[in-house]
Model the fold of this input.
Amino acid sequence: MGKTKWFSDDDMLPPRQDHRGAQGNAYQRRRSNAPEKYARPSQGSRPVDHIFRQWIFRLRRNWIALHFRLNQFTFGVFRKKAAFKLGLLAMAGYLLFGSDSPIASMVTREVRTQFVSQEDETMLDFGPDGNSVPGAKSGKKKVKDDASPVGPEGVFDTQAREYIRRFKDIARGEMEKYGIPASISLAQGLVESRAGTSRLAVRNNNHFGIKCFARNCKKGHCSNFTDDSHKDFFRIYSSPWESWRAHSQMLASGRYASLKKYGRDYSKWAYGLKRLGYATNGTYAEKLIGMIEKYDLHQYDQ
Done:
């Protein structure tokens, strides 16, 4: 096979003699009409506007291809009006959840106003001043027992001081009348009622976890709270002062009357209450002493 050539009219091949006859003659006629050579117009002979249109066409074709790839790999971010829509979404998110927005304030607001004891295996992560509480456990485990005593770390400092201001004179009056140190009464009130914020203190006005052991109670005499058993019933009082008086009368009589021999020694009173079974908590005495020493409650024993 030779290279393909173009022939002029003078170099025509002789007529092909084959069985196709007229068909072969038509083939020869087509060959005879072919030009002598293929002439492609030169680059300089084309008009400038034609070259410019081709250049614009190629740029547009490349931009379309690039735009398609960008949309393919960015999930349509660069589509028409997509950036505008993303901007609107970002602005709406800032208005709804920005640092100064009402929704953000509502989400971050401290809605829980009390701590849970370590025995309940849960603690709030932040104190009333917004700082983390030393030794606090993270998580939002459901409170196991709202009536169980707490230590000094289990109450808000501002609530504890407000409770002391509110009941210090009552504690002194009960000390003069029944011989119970004011520091012990205040410490028990703080520990048992979580500085007056526990459900037992709010609903029953019961600040000392006083239980009801009567077999036949009238309506409104007591209510059920889960403490050591789901069948524990706690007294209901008409006012917090009535709860304080019942507490003084209980410690001044029965098995607790022997503690009067300790005078105003709050440490011996605390361990005596634990020994006589005022509370089943294993660190009850330490909680009372810790509360007394943290807030200088022994000053009210003078």
